[in-house]
Design a protein that fits this description.
A: 11 strands, B: 264 residues, mainly alpha
């Protein structure tokens, strides 16, 4: 009996570790209407290996999400940033529901029904999928008191096979930008000092003999870089509790 | 011009071309605005100077709280994608400093005067506004120190780069503006106006800024030594309050209880 329980526990764990199945089989292009956000829509392209989603809302440029090689990226000013580091609005919650098999974190979980994804839990949100003969036809996303309904408007073959659509160009962080500065106008006069930051104990940025405490500054920059990795969740919780920032559903 | 002609005449063709290219780059650099990268580089010099004057507070709970409030307000500023740093520094002096490129400092003395998160948000909003409006940067530009730096770079022909000497000039100038003379009345009032808007857009009650300015006014009236620095670099708090009064509103979150809980 004990052994059976142990075995079923092991089986459960094994099931949970299975990667999320893809929403679309092979290359496909689909468009989705989003109820819950004014005039918002999402276009999803996949070549079977990577997924690109473009969120359109209002008259601004679309927000581009690229899921590839185990990570989800968002196109930001100056380059692509990882989803966790990006402070978005509704789209940050809604779009990942269309990016499976790429998940927002390794902890995300999917349940299956008839070989298709039935639910997907990620970062405080849950997506519930409905299917028709062609593929996924609708997604209900819920996060706290908010919910969004995505309805498929079109699903067919991809309009472009351009591989560069799925190319990620990571944004240079402050540390990388500082590294670039080393050779420029504001580069360090001390060329022996690395302008890159890697982690604790690594010197960061240019230093000058000008009376400044660059040691203390580097410690702050490195601590902030490390905090940035987990900032999204902590900041969201902080804002929700205080009903400030995005916590009150404000736009930015 | 005669000098340039003479120099060019003495150079082989390729070297002349390099020299011309370098000269054109320098000329562009002298007239253009600073790029964000340059702004951050200048900000680091100023921030390092602030940190050589006052140490970072070791109260990590407070540091984290100030950072969360600062990031919340910064998201609603004109430059939400800048890499913002919010740092508490240890001194009874009531003050806060903004360096170019997103380095914001607030003293423990200033935090002692604050009674709600909304007040903190407005104070940080003021500093964020100095950075988004590029006030210190404009001072540095006005003083032509960087132009001089470019000349230094130009004379070296091969290298370029910020020298220790130039960094010291930037640092001294910024230090003088931040700690002695101030940036200017017009800029301070503008930072009040813009900063209160950022904080209000983030959902904070802007009328909380009134309490902060009133507590500063009380320090000014009492000739408190902790206010002397702020008094010499900013307009009188009562004047600031008069100027901003009509823009302060009672809607939004005050969060006095969270402030008390997280700063105890």
């Amino acid at each position: 009996m004990k052994r059976a329980a142990w075995f079923s526990g092991l089986l459960c764990a094994a099931v949970l570790l299975v990667a999320a199945p893809p929403l679309f089989r092979g290359a496909a292009e689909s468009s989705w209407e989003v109820a819950g956000v004014d005039a918002a829509s999402v276009t999803v392209l996949t070549d079977g290996r990577s997924v690109r989603a473009e969120w359109n809302a209002g008259s601004g440029a679309p927000i581009v999400f690229i899921a590839t090689e185990g990570k989800i990226w968002v196109r930001d000013g100056g380059g692509d940033v990882e989803l966790a580091q990006w402070r978005g609005g509704d789209e940050k919650i809604v779009v990942p529901a269309l990016l499976l098999p790429y998940t927002t974190t390794a902890k995300d979980r999917t349940t299956l029904a008839g070989g298709n994804v039935e639910t997907y839990g990620y970062g405080g949100a849950t997506a519930t999928y409905s299917w028709d003969a062609k593929g996924p036809s609708g997604v209900e996303v819920k996060a706290g008191a908010k919910s969004w309904t995505l309805s498929r408007k079109k699903l067919g073959s991809v309009s472009s096979k351009d591989a560069s659509l799925y190319e990620v160009k990571p944004k240079q962080g402050a540390s990388s930008r500082l590294a670039a500065l080393a050779g420029g106008l504001f580069g360090s006069s001390d060329r022996s000092v690395s302008a890159t930051a890697g982690g604790r104990g690594v010197e960061k940025g240019a230093r000058f003999e000008d009376g400044g405490d660059y040691e203390a500054l580097a410690a702050i920059e490195i601590a902030d870089d490390e905090w940035d990795d987990e900032a999204g969740e902590e900041l969201a919780k902080f804002q929700n509790e205080g009903n400030v920032g995005r916590g009150r559903g404000g736009d930015r | 011009m005669f000098f340039l002609t003479a120099v060019l005449a003495a150079q082989p063709a390729l070297a002349q071309w390099d020299l011309l290219k370098k000269g054109a780059t320098m000329a562009r650099a002298m007239t253009r605005d600073f790029t964000e990268e340059e702004e951050i580089a200048i900000g680091r010099i100023v921030a390092a100077r602030v940190l050589s004057t006052y140490p970072r507070s070791g109260n990590e709970k407070l540091q984290r709280y100030v950072r969360l409030v600062g990031q919340t307000v910064a998201e609603y500023s004109d430059r939400p994608t800048l890499d913002w740093h919010f740092v508490v520094i240890e001194t009874p002096m009531v003050n806060a400093f903004s360096c170019p490129g997103g380095y914001v400092f607030i003293t423990t003395g200033a935090l002692d005067q604050i009674t709600s998160e909304a007040e903190l948000a407005a104070v940080l909003g003021h500093e964020i506004a100095h950075a988004t409006e590029r006030h210190i940067l404009r001072e540095i530009k006005r003083a032509n120190v960087i132009t001089e730096g470019l000349n230094i770079a130009q004379s070296e022909l091969g290298g370029g780069g910020m020298s220790d000497e130039l960094a010291r000039k930037v640092s001294d100038l910024a230090y003088d503006r931040l700690f002695n003379t101030g940036i200017g009345r017009k800029e301070e009032l503008a930072a009040d106006r813009v900063g209160v808007k950022f904080a209000a857009d983030a959902g904070y009650r802007s009328s909380a800024y009134r309490s902060f300015l009133e507590s500063l006014e009380a320090l000014a009236a009492a000739n408190s030594s902790s206010f002397s620095q702020l008094g010499s670099t900013h307009p009188r708090p009562a004047d600031r309050l008069r100027a901003i009064q009509s823009r302060l509103a009672d809607r939004g979150e005050l969060l006095a209880e969270r402030w008390a809980r997280l700063t105890r």
